[in-house]
Amino acid sequence: MDGMMSGEDTVFAVDEITTICKDVVEAQLKAFTYAHSKVTTWTSNVIEESLKKLTALNKPFKYVVSCIIMQKNGAGLHTACSCFWDLGTDGCTTVRWENRSMYCVLTVFGMAL
Amino acid sequence: MEVFTKKRRDFGAPVNFSYTEPYLIDSLAPNPELHKLWVERTHRDQQFQTSREMSEHEVNTDRIETISRGIYHKEGGWPKEIDPTESEHVTRYRKKIERDRMYAAALRTLQTTCETIIKQNNAVEINEKYFDSAEESEVQSDESDVPTLKSLTVLRDPNGSPEDHDGRWARKVVWRHEGAQKSRKVAISYCSLDFDKRLSVDIGGYGSHNCSSYIWDITNPNFPEQELSATAPITCLEYHTKDTNLMLGGWYNGMLSLWDTRKGHRPVDTTDIKMSHSDAVLDLKWIKSKSGMECASVGADGRVLWWDVRKFSSPIDTMEVRLPAWALAGRNRPGAKRSSRGSARPGARGAAGTTAAEEKPVAPLLGTMCIDYDSAAGLNKFTIGTETGHICLCNSKGRTPSERISAVFHGQHGAISSLYRSPFYPKFFLTSGDWSVRLFHEEVGTPILASKYAESRVVDCNWSPVRPGVFASAQANGYVDIWDLVRRTTHSVLSTKVSEHALTCCSFDHSGNLLAVGDEKGGLTICEVSKSLSNIGSNEKHAVQSVLDREQKREKNLESRMKESRLGKTTAKVEDSVVADLAKEEEEVERLFLESIVGAHGSL
Amino acid sequence: MSQEIDEIIKRITSHRGVKGAIVMNSEGIPIRTTLEKDLATHYAALISHLTHEGCKLVNSTSGGKDDLKFLRIRNNKHEIMVAPEGKYVLVVIQEPSVE
């Protein structure tokens, strides 16, 4: 089966992608404190940056990136997801990052082609 | 019927999808401690404005220098073969035309049309102006209420760089008098007197500096009409009172020179430097004399020199400006009890005789800022203003220096920047200095009118030559004030900013229509004053006279009251008690005032 | 013929207030005048220009169907009457306010 490439390339490399995402979030948000008017820009920056880095890996994957930024005011948050996909190749990873004023939760889903 | 076939391998890899268990992305527990810190903001500040946003811009057009040239074309239109200078040719040509039949015919028709018009013109004046006088008077009454100043042109020091307008000071400006007409020519002496530049001049000599001053035609602000060259900066200029071709100038190195504008830009004659002032000449005046060729100059070295301009090798006379003993003792004039000048003179002799011993410690020389001479006030009388703020009324006839100074007033707090006798009332004179302008009468020791302190130094003042009650004063913040004693004596009637830079001088032209104002960057602004400031009212001379007389009497009465009360202190007890009461009251007020201050401080 | 012309000029100048008359051709050459030579030349030179401009104006606004017949210039002292006809122009200077 020519489409079924097996090996390193086709597996969602959780560790590698987690580090990439962490770096991105860190770089984009570290300097700021939560400000409502800025959040839109921040989320799009984070998503764009991380997608850029992911595509730079040159792997046959589709990516879905979702970003949640929440003000730290003591409220609780619970978020979960479920997928219907190929367990062998596809995967997802989550990065949680926080500073004094906010949380950022970045989730990346990767689906092999 | 169509059949499609597609191999299995072209469908791609088989899918092997399965459901995953719910995957917990993140879970944050509520944090009540943080929640406690959460404060709802009840108010919110936000600014907005409904008006449109605007901005202000200022644009000034560049100065373009233009030159007008013209060609006078005297005669033309002649056919090629005819030379208009040959009369024979011309007459022959004319004859030829006159023989033309068309010519006569044309003329005949023209005659009728022209005659009709000529007759019509003679029958009725179709362009007659009605209500001529009414219109004029209306215009006048409109204008008479609003004094205005309109700047006409700016003359810049040709030696300054044009970009930043950084020229030398226009230290003094004099108008050429041309009868009752508006003057067109103005002479400006350019000479920087600020300290740092002065220092560099002192060290480096004048070599690198251009020392020329210029005469301008105000209708041509691009180029000066004539140069007046000198080897040191020219500090002051004065046109000869009769012959406007003669120009007298004082130099920064103490010399004087005479130019004849007909004989080019070099001075005709200069004084001998050894006999001249030992410091800058600061002011000079022509003196009325038989020859009409005498002048007096004053300088920072504290001397007054009299010259005959035909013989510049040595001065005719000199006088040192020192305060006499009676002035040092705080009196206005020798024999202080005498108030009128006529009786003061013999008194002065007596005082000089008796106080000779007192005068032994020589008072210091006083640098002299300005001199005024008006033959109407007295042929030998002149007035000088010193750097120490004293005004000395002098008489050039006196033999000893102390006789020459007949009265000393405390004019201003600082140097007297200018001093002018009124052209209408020679006994009154105007001084400027510190931050005010003051009007004096020569028999009263205190100013009869004094302006409020201005925001900035007053650098010059000048009487209007046509309106008895009008004078202008120039300030260091660029404002020119115009005063009209007929309207009010407390404030100026007009205050206008003329220049961005500090002003140095102002001067009315001889028709009273134009005012020239010089600044420290070499600019000279020519302003036109409104009709109301240059047209004399019907009995204005009388009205101003009465205002001045009233103020003078008031001041005189005050003076005598002061004296009386001083005398009264020693003699009359009644008065004494009144004075004592007053003093007590004053003390009480002062105490209360101090208390209130202390109280205020305490609460702070 | 020249007698007749003399007659015409004389008649015009004999009117009240008339200062002088100039007959000139369209080139601006004074042919006959009662004024001083220099003054006449001056007037002629300047007026020929003005007349020319005036003719141009009338011609162009009427589409070439009309001609300038008369020009009156009024100043404070005088009235200058300019009457062009063909190649020639008659100029009369009058001081109308003289009683």
UniProtKB/TrEMBL annotation, chain A:
Superkingdom of the source species: Eukaryota
Residue stretches in coiled coil: none
UniProt xrefs under Pfam families: Tctex-1
InterPro entries in UniProt: Tctex-1-like (IPR005334), Tctex-1-like_sf (IPR038586)
Protein name: Dynein light chain Tctex-1 like protein
Organism: Aduncisulcus paluster
The organism's taxonomic lineage, starting at the top: Eukaryota, Metamonada, Carpediemonas-like organisms, Aduncisulcus
From TrEMBL, chain B:
Chief place of localization: cytoplasm
Keyword Magnesium: no
Gene3D superfamilies per the UniProt record, alphabetical: YVTN repeat-like/Quinoprotein amine dehydrogenase (2.130.10.10)
Ranges of compositional bias, category Low complexity: 341-356
InterPro entries: Dynein_IC (IPR050687), WD40/YVTN_repeat-like_dom_sf (IPR015943), WD40_repeat_dom_sf (IPR036322), WD40_rpt (IPR001680)
Chain spans, region Disordered: 332-357, 546-569
Alphabetical keyword list: Cell projection, Cilium, Cytoplasm, Cytoskeleton, Dynein, Microtubule, Motor protein, Repeat, WD repeat
UniProt subcellular location: Cytoplasm, Cytoskeleton, Cilium axoneme
Family: Belongs to the dynein intermediate chain family.
Protein name, UniProt field: Dynein axonemal intermediate chain 2
Organism: Aduncisulcus paluster
UniProtKB/TrEMBL annotation, chain C:
The species this protein was found in: Aduncisulcus paluster
Compartments where located: Cytoplasm, Cytoskeleton
Domain (Roadblock/LAMTOR2): residue spans on this chain: 5-94
Task of the protein: Acts as one of several non-catalytic accessory components of the cytoplasmic dynein 1 complex that are thought to be involved in linking dynein to cargos and to adapter proteins that regulate dynein function. Cytoplasmic dynein 1 acts as a motor for the intracellular retrograde motility of vesicles and organelles along microtubules.
Main location class: cytoplasm
Protein name (Swiss-Prot/TrEMBL): Dynein light chain roadblock
Gene3D superfamilies in the cross-refs: Dynein light chain 2a, cytoplasmic
Family: Belongs to the GAMAD family.
Alphabetical list of InterPro entries matching this protein: DYNLRB1/2, Roadblock/LAMTOR2_dom
Keywords: Cytoplasm, Cytoskeleton, Dynein, Microtubule, Motor protein, Transport
SUPFAM superfamilies: Roadblock/LC7 domain
A Pfam family of this chain: Robl_LC7
